[in-house]
Model the fold of this input.
Amino acid sequence: MIPVALANLFKKPATRLYPFTVREPYARTRGSIVLREAECIFCGICQNKCPSKAIKVVRAEKTWQVDQLSCLACMRCVEVCPKKCIEARSARPAPYGADRAGSIEKKVGPAAPPAAPAK
Amino acid sequence: MSIDFTQLAAQELLARVQEHSATGSRLVQISAVALPVAAAGDTPSIELTYSFDKDGALRHLRLTAAPGDKIASISGVYFPAFLYENELHEQFGVHFEGMVLDFKGSLYKTAVRVPFAVAAPVRKTPPAVNPGEPQAK
Amino acid sequence: MKTTIIPLGPQHPVLPEPLSFDLVMDNERVLEAIPSIGFIHRGLELLAPKRDFEEFVMIAERICGICSFMHGMGFCSAVEDTLALPLPKRAAQLRVILAELSRVHSHLLWLGLAADAFGFENLFMQTWRLREDVLDIFEETTGGRVIFNIVKVGGMRKDIDDATLARIAAKLESMRPQLKQITDIFLNDYTVKNRLAGLAVLTTAQAKELCVVGPMLRASGVASDQRVGSPLYAGLDWQVATEPDGDCYARCRVRVREIFQSINIISQVARGMAADGIAAKVTGAPNGESFFRAEQPRGEAVYYVRGNGTRFLERFRVRTPTFANVPAVVKLLKGVELADVPTIILTIDPCISCMER
Done:
């Protein structure tokens, strides 16, 4: 072990000084999903196929939301979407605040009916 | 896909297991399935499968434990069986008598008691023995 | 005789996952060890009737982080058996390559943890530095370092082209000198041998009686490996690593030999890849039952699938190798000194999240 330990003294460190050096993810890295809501038809297939039930689609209101903290980034929704409007990103979403603040990303379709006024 | 199993009555279990042990078979696993019930709300019977390996070939023993049945523990013959039997007792509610190391229901300490003893849905069509064959009507 | 009870775990620096033993001690000697498990029981098998069988692969892979690929592969193989779905040759070869890479990363992980268990931190760090290269290979080809999500019922979701495979094989071959340098320390260093040799001996007869699997069994002289006779490994030139002594040193030796055997297998498969597609179309739903046995890095894992003709499985059961090996630890801990207890617990390569699902 002594030769290995001595050689290690003169090598550069094996670790990166994050956050000053950030490693770029590979092209295939499964980071997170993003919806292009202009192309979405709100069919709900992604909701049915999601293994962790992270996606919720309400067709009548034309809303689509994903709970990024439940999402496994397995990309199954990307595979099954008939309009191919869910995009796989290789970057993980930024960290969330306390109480999962901001972790549910909601998208509303462009032709959504106006929301009912609160009574 | 059919597997090579022998259906037993609960009383024959210990004798058959001792036969396997005498031939030098290795206990591979003990698993359980909750069977469908006649009326909703009934406690399901549990089908136990004991698997043994001899020179690479798997042989299975199968028996059905009705609710309230006491099955003889095989941990006197195969010591590792105590872990399987304790787990099955907690998950399915099967009673095993004479376990070498008995956790008395506190192995996993789940919030819901016997969580796996949920009756299987009744099959609409009978199972095909060989996939690819038309199903028996 | 006055005895003390020392609880080891569930949180302990050397244990990768929570496992508890109540050690009944007489001074420094353990008289009896009472196991306590269930700290990360998630009941994943109960999700099988609630998820479509094609989506359940994602959940099956998440039973464990170290053995994740083979859980997915085992589940898919058992379901493919019930569907009588033939696998394209290229998909089978890709599965073999990823499975053997899994074995390399898992054994490197174990070697590091074993070094940590007897206090050799420097060796632990160096071993895991080598493991990082394997994890980078995983991320580049499958998209994840730990959970791959690349296997599906019928084959693979993504292809890895031949050029990348050749590059991976070359990278592993170039890692050999460093691997040899590190593993020689495990096998020849005086301090390591002092801690491992002669400890927790399991004779051949005891190993068979306690129904242990994997490197525990092979280190006690029994040449039992589920890859032998499997159609996936047909035509490949490799040996089952068996050792006669049955002590912790022999188990370490078996795992080191398996790392090099896995690199051999990957090189062979990468040279002769078929080109017949990566997935077969899935028609119908699983009907009937099937057992599939895979050789995980820790031993033989049994996957039982029962389908009833619908898209939701009736039962999915995994019997993981650690489940079969833990009763052996209960017997092996009798009569050893307290300082050797973590080494013995680690010698079975415990993967508690697999064991408890």
